Structures
1.
Amino acid sequence: MSKNGMQEVSFLKTPIMSTYLLAWMIGDFDYIEAYTSGDFSGERVLCRVYTPVGLADQGHYSLDLAIKSVEYFSRLFNIPYPLPKLDLVAVPDFAPGAMENWGLITFRTYALLIEEYGSQDRKHEIAATVIHEISHQWFGNLVTMEWWSDLWLFEGFATHLAYIVVDELFPEWDIWSEFVKRIQEVLKHDSLRTSHPVEVGVANPSEITQIFDEVSYMKGASVLRMLSAWLGQDLLLLGIRKFIHKYMWSNANTEDLWVTLAEECKVDVPGFMRKWTRQTGYPVLSVTELDESTVLVRQNIFLSTGDMREEEDSLIWPVPLAFVCAGDSKPRNIMMDSKEMILKVDTTRWYKFNMGQTGFYRVSYPSKTLALLGQTFGTDQLNAANRVGLLTDVAALVTSGIAPTSSFLTLLKYFEDEENYMVWAEVSLRLTEMFSVWLEQPEAIVNALKEVQRRLFTKIVKRLGWDFLDGEDPSTGNLRAVAIRFAGRAGDPEIVAEARRRFRLFMRNRDTSAIPPDLRFPVFEIVMRATEGVEEYEDIVNYYRETFIPAEKVVALSVLGYGQSLELVRRTLAFAMSSEVRTQDILTAIATLRSSVIGRAELWNFMRHHWDILYERHCDDIGFLDYFVVLSIESFSTIERYHEVKCQGRNNIPDVEINSNWATMFTNSCRLTTRLNSLDNRSTHNSNSINTSIKIKINISHRTHLSNRLVQSKDWD
C-alpha cells in the first residue's frame, strides 16, 4: 500500500484470448480454496470460490466440483488447464446464470452457493452449471468460435460435456433421464414455425443476444448427444480431443468440427449433422402396423399447431432409429434417410423406437402398441428415460391434436406403481400443463382432474411418509417432495393439514426439522394455496427478508404468487417491483401468479397499465421486457383472452390460441369428467383399455410464438 492509499496490482501476462473472456471483480469477498492433485501434469492448479462476506461455507460443494472437473477435463482433452488459477465468484446481482470468463468464472449466487444440507435438485443444477462453465475453459476459451454463428457449437457441446461429466462423477443420479426431462422445453419451442435453426447466421452484433436461447443450448446438446449415440461416445470424445489439439489458441467453426470428426470416425458426419443444425424443427415418426410382422414408419415435421402445410411435407431428416422389440437383447440401429421405411417388427408384442431417448424426434404409436408399452412399466424392460420419453411424446401429440386427450389420460394409469423420481417429476409437469390450460373450464372438469392427481400422489406420500431417513437415497427424498407438493396441490385434506402444522412450527422458532430443505418449497406452496389470509403471507415475506441463504430467498419469493386472494396478488406485484427484490429476481416473483385466474388477470392488467414505467426502468434489458410480456399472457386459455391480447397489437402469441382451442373444444365435457373419475378403476394390465370413449375434438388452428418477441415500442399498449 502506498502512502496515498493507493495499491498497485500486477497481473501475469494473459495468453492469446478473446476480449469477451476478460473480467475483473473488485469488492469485499470471502473465499475458500483448494488445489488440484497435479497428477495429470505435475502442476497443481489453485481453485477458489469467492462469496459475499459471510457465505464462504456455502461454497464447498462448488469448490469440490471445480477440482474434480479441472482434473477430468485435463485428462479428457489431454491438455492441462492452461492457467495457474481458477476462480469461481458468486455475484449478488447478476442477470446471466453464469459466464465463463477465463480463469474468473462469474455466477449468480443461486447458481454457485448451497448449504451443506441443501436440496438434491439444487445440487444437480449447480453441478451442471459449474461443470458447463469449466468445460468452456477448453472448449470455448482455448479454442474459440470463429464468429457468433457458431455459438451453438460451443454452448451445445459445453452442455453435453457437462452431462457426461456429471454422469461420471455421480452415476447414481441417472442424469440422462434428467436430460430427457429437461429437453422437453426446447422440443416444445422447436415445434413452432417461429423457431430457428441451431446454426444461424449473425450479420450484426445487435443480433447476438437473440441466439442465446434453448435452441442454441439444449437442441445443440441434444443433436450432439444423438451424434454421440450414433458414433459411440468414446469415438466422439476422441474426435473432440483431436479438434481441440488442432485448433488450440485459435478459432474454429462448425464445419471444422464436422470435418475433424469425419476424419476420426470414418463416417459422413457433415452430411448427417447439417440437416439437424441448418433445418428448423424436427420430425415425428408415425408408425402404422401393416400386419402382424410389418410396420410402416413415416416422418413428417412435428408442429405443435398440428397444421402441416403441403410444402413442409417434403422436409426429411436423417433419423437414427435405435429400436427394440420385446425379447431383444440389444437395440437395432437403422439410419432412416427417406420419407418412409418398412420394417420387420412383431406387432403382436411391444416395440419401441428411440430407445434411451437419444434421438431428437417424437414417435406416434397405434393405441394398441401404446397400451402394450404401458404394461412394461413397473418392470425392467424400459428404463426411466424411455418411460419419460413415452409420456412426453404422448402429451405433445395430444396438445397438437394428433392424438386424443384420452391417450394421455389412459397412459397415466400405468404409472400407479412407478417408483422413479424422474418419471414422477415429468408426470407432475404434464399435469401442471393440463391444469394450466383447463383452469378456467367448468368446475367439474377441474375437480375431476384434481382427483386424478390426488389419487396418484397421495399413494406415494403414504408409502414414503414425511420424514427423511439417514442413509436414504437422495432420489427418494426428491420423490417425497414431488408427491407431497402435488398431493397438496390437489387439496388432499390430510396433507394440507400436515403442511400447515409444520409451517407453524417452522415459522414459530425456525425448526428446520419440521420442514427440511427439500420440503421447504412444497410446504410453503401448499400453505399459500390453502389460505386467503395474510398471516402466512407475511410470515414468508419476513423469512425472505431475514434469510441470508440465496436458495431460501428464491423459495420464499417464488411462493408468494400462490396467494389466493386479490389482495395478496396485488401485494406480490407491488413487492416484486420494490427495492427489496433485485431486478434479476423480479420474474421469479411474478411467475407463480399465473397459477390462479385472479393472478393471471392482475398480471396482464399490471403489464398493460404500467408498461411505460417498466420500459423506462428496463429498456436496456430487452430480455427482461421480453420475458415479462411472455409471463403476462402465455397461460391464457380462453378465446376471449386470445382476442383481447390480439387487440393489444400482439400477433405473435405463445400458447394462447392453442391453449384456448384445446380447453374449449370438447364435444362432451361431461363424458370427459366421467373418464377422469374412472381412471383408477381399471387394471394396469388390461391391454384393451385405450379407447376412444372420450370424443374430444382438438381443432387447433394457427399458433405462433414469441420467438421474435422483442418489444418494439414504448407505447406498446
2.
Amino acid sequence: MHARKRRKEEGFTLVELIVVVAILGFLLSIAIPRYLTARTTAAQAATKANLHQLASSMELYMTEHPGEGDTYPDNATSWLSAYIPKAPVPPAGGTSKYKYKQLQKNSPGDSYAIWDPNPYGGKYFAAGPGGAIGEGNSAEDAVSNATGITDPDLSNPVDLNW
C-alpha cells in the first residue's frame, strides 16, 4: 500500500499538464501580438525622430548659408556631417540608408525630400522643408504628404551615409 501511494504522487496528471499548456498558450496569444505592435510603433517613432533631425539640420544649413540662395543642395552628405556627427540609420538596420533628393530644382517651389525606403507597419515616412513629416502607403505618397508635391520623382536619390 505504501508503494502504491508514492507512485501516485510522483508526477502531474495528463489533465494538469493540458490545463497548464492551455493557459500558457492563451497568455502567449495575448503577449506576442502586443510585442509585435510595440516593436512596429517604436520603429515608426524612431524613423520620425531621425527624419525630423535630418530635416532640422537641412533648415539650419539654409539659415547659416543665406548667400547660397533659396536652393537646397544637391548632395546633403557633403555638409550634414557638420551638424550630425554620425548618419542616423533606419530602424530596419542592415545596409539600409535614408534617402535624399532635391525636388523642383531652381524653381519657385524649390524643395527637398528625405525618406526611409523601408515600411513600418505598412507605412512609409518622409520629411520635407520646414521639418514637415509625411506618411503614406508608398515612399512617393509619404514624400508628397511631406512636401505638397504631387507625383514626386524619387529616382536616383542620394544615400545619407557619412
3.
Amino acid sequence: MNFFERINISFSDCVKKYHLEFLPSYLEDYYNGRLLRVKESVTLDSLEIDDIDEMGGTIILFEKDLIIENALTQSNVDYGPTVIVKGNVSAKNIAFGGACIIIKGDVTVEQTMIGIYNHGVINITGKVTAEYIISDDHCFSIYDKGSKGIFLGFQDLRYHAKDVLSGKYYDDAEENIKIDKIIEAIKKGNSIKKNGNIVSQVQKAIDKFKASKNAKLNLSNLNLTEMPEEIFQLENIKELDLSNNPLKELSLKGMQTDHLKSINLACCSLTEFPIDILNINQIESIDLSFNTISSLPEELPVLNQLKKLLLSHCNFTEFPCILYQVVNLEYLDLGFQDEETLFLIDKALQSLKVLLLSGNANINITAPQPKLYELNISHCLMDTFPIALTKSTHLTHLDMSYNHKMRWLPDEFSELKN
C-alpha cells in the first residue's frame, strides 16, 4: 500500500506535530515508533487493517476521509494498531477487533458495524449511521446522540437481537448473537437483517398495551433515558410502569395522562419528586422506591385522589410532614431510609391503613392512627411498642420482627385485640 507515508517518530513528537492531543497516554506503552500517514482522502475496494500492521503498535493516521466500497476490517481481537481518521469513514460493512480506533468525523455504513471482544476500543466523535451497530463486549463509544441504526449489545435496549437478526445469526438456545456468522457475512457483503418488519421493545410493549384489557403500559427494564415519543399519542393509559430505567428526570409533557391512575418509577435514578406528576389530578398510586429522593413538594396535597405512595430505599432524613395533608392516603411505604433518619409521626394520617417503616433505626410515633390495620416496624432497633398505636383498634397485621432491643411491651398493648 504505497499511499502511506512511513515516518519514524517518538510518541510525544507524533502527538505534537500531527495534533493528536486526544490520544490516550497509555498508548505510548504500545507504540513501536512508527507512524503511517495518509495526507489525502483515500478510496479502496476493501481494507484489512491487520495487513498493514500485523503485530500492532503502529499509529495509522488518515488525515482526511477513508472510503471503503466493501468491508473495512481489523480481525485480530487481542491486539492491533492505533487507527486515527480525522475525516469521515464510509463502508459497506465494518468489523474491528483489538485495535484502538479513533474517528473524528461521521461514520456511514450500509449494513453492519461491529466491535468484537473487550481488548479493542472504538471512539467516534461524529454521527454513526448503519443498519446495525453491534458491540460484542467491546469498548464502543459514540458521542453524537443523532446516530441512527439498530443498536445491539449497548445499554440501549430498544431492540432485542432475536427480534431483528436473521435466524442464522442468533442462537435461540444460548440466547447469544453468533459473532462468527456475522463476521462471515460482513466479509461476503451480506446483510444480517431479519426479513419483515423490525419491532422495537417499546413497540412490542405498545402492541401488548393495545391488546390488553387492563390498560397497563409496561416499559420497565428498557434502559430508557427519556420518554419514548411513540407513547405520546396513546390514549386511556391507566397504569404506566417505567421502573428500572435510568431516566434521572421525568417529563410527561405531550403525553395523554387523563386516565392515568398508577405510575411506577422505582429504580429510575431520580433525585427529586417528578413535578409533572402533580398535574395528574386523578393519580392514585405512585412508586418512587429505590431513588435518591429526599423531600416531597409542598404541592403534593393537590393529588387528592392519591391513595398509595411507595418511597422505600430513598434518602429521607425525617418524616415528610406534607403527608399529613394528603387526605386520602391509605398506603405508605417509607422503609429503609438513610441511617440517620429520624421519623417523628406526631399527627394522625386520617385515612392511612397501611404503614411500612421497616429498616429505620429512629422511629417515634406519638399520635394514634385511627384507621391503621397493617404496620411493619421490623428491623427498627425499637425497645418497645409505641403506646400511641395501642389506640389503633383496627390493627390486624403487625410485624415487629428483628427488633432485638425490644424487651417489653406497654400494658396498653393488650388493648390490641385484633
